[in-house]
Amino acid sequence: MAGKRRGNGEGSIVRKPTGQWMAAMTSGRDPATGKLKRTYFYGKTRAEVSAKLAHAQSDKARGTFVEPHKVIVAQWLETWLEDYARPKVRQTTLDSYEGLIRRHLIPALGRTPLQSLRPDMVQHVYNTKHSDGLSPGTIGMMHMVLSAAMKQAVRVGLVMRNPCEATTLPRVTTRTMHPLTLEEVRRLLSATKQDRLFPAMFLEFGTGLRRGEILAARWSDVDLDTGVLHVRQALSRVMNRGNGTRKTHLQFHEPKTDSSRRTIPIPSDIIEELRHHKSRQAQERLLFGQAYQDHGLVFCEPDGRPIDPRTFTRRFDALLKQAGLPHFNFHSARHAYATIALELGESAKVV
């Protein structure tokens, strides 16, 4: 009868031949065809599907209904990485995001349906990772990546809320840094004076450059007459996303931030060392002849190839040991530079 006809979206509940109950409601129109779309809910009892239907109808009335889908967390993280993160971030940043997703997020949450991801599930992962010894800093990066992906999922209508917003991160403890003292730097430079990488280390302690900036410096970036170095590029090892057989490759890229493009004064004694270094490099170029790969780099392999940042770090660690000094991260040399400059009387503002 006409009086009993249900309107669009009111829903219906039926029992299937298998004994399972099913509810259905009209959830909208297909934007491609204009046809009405039906959304289905299943359960073991009529009361169960009735509750699901009522909840969906309430959400629809408030304009907060999200159509059920079968996307799992792993699939969405892959989509977010390729379609939303890749166009916005640097290759090195993308590689770090992918590493966090592959090593931590997918193994822990990957099989979870995206719409079923709850704050307590995410919190459990953070707590477990922390108990297993993962640093608060790395967990914070995991949280940043997952939260960004879930924010995008909210924007495109896959989920109603970002579960990461209701989680608590482990407290970050500040580590006390002990950079090399002026006397220790002198010991290191004295013990490694004959090493091929000595000029690079000398330049580092006199300028506080990043490792990738030192290895990407070109002679065209250095003015030996005025004693300045223009930071215009950096060198990193990044993931190989092509069809090559190697997993990674070296890549020159823009400096880390806009403020990283800068001009740095070089102390006069380092200028003299760079002049000698340039002469030695010219001899290597003659020795290799046509086999020399000239990238115009200040610091390179004997045949002109860029120095792999990992190789540079291993060599730096070996030189520390050779000088009888404790191990410390090469990045800490930037802090050593600042400490030494202050020790030598430079103003804090200039440093």
Question: What do you see in this structure?
Answer:
With 351 residues, this protein is an alpha+beta fold. The protein folds into three domains: 61 residues, Double Stranded RNA Binding Domain, CATH 3.30.160; 94 residues, DNA polymerase, domain 1 (Orthogonal Bundle); 135 residues, Intergrase catalytic core (hpI Integrase, Chain A). The chain is 44% helix and 12% strand. It contains eleven helices and eight strands. It has a three-stranded antiparallel beta sheet with strand order 1-2-3, covered by helices on one side. A three-stranded antiparallel beta sheet has the order 4-5-8, with no helix packed on it. Strands 6-7 form a two-stranded antiparallel ribbon. Helix 2 packs across helix 5, helix 7 runs antiparallel to helix 9 and helix 7 packs across helix 11.
Task: Characterize this entry briefly.
With 351 residues, the protein is α+β, with helices and mostly antiparallel strands. It has helices at 46-62, 73-85, 91-109, 119-131, 136-155, 182-191, 198-207, 211-216, 268-288, 309-322, 333-343, and strands spanning 12-15, 21-29, 36-43, 222-223, 228-230, 234-239, 248-253, 263-265. The chain has 3 domains: 2-62, Double Stranded RNA Binding Domain; 73-166, Tyrosine recombinase, N-terminal domain (DNA polymerase, domain 1); 182-231 and 259-343, Orthogonal Bundle (hpI Integrase, Chain A), CATH 1.10.443.10.
Strand order of the largest sheet: 1-2-3
Most strands sheet: 3 strands, antiparallel
Low confidence ranges: 1-9
What is the β-strand count? 8
Order of helices and strands: EEEHHHHHHHHEEEEEHHH
Described by the principal axes of the CA atoms, the overall outline is elongated
What's the gyration radius in Å?
30 Å
Distance, first to last CA: 86 Å
- What is the CATH superfamily classification of the largest domain? Intergrase catalytic core
Question: What is the CATH topology assignment of the largest domain?
Answer: hpI Integrase, Chain A
Helix coverage percent of residues? 40-55%
CATH class of the largest domain, named Mainly Alpha
- Mean pLDDT over the residues: 84
Number of helices: 11
Structural class: alpha+beta
Strand share of the residues? 5-15%
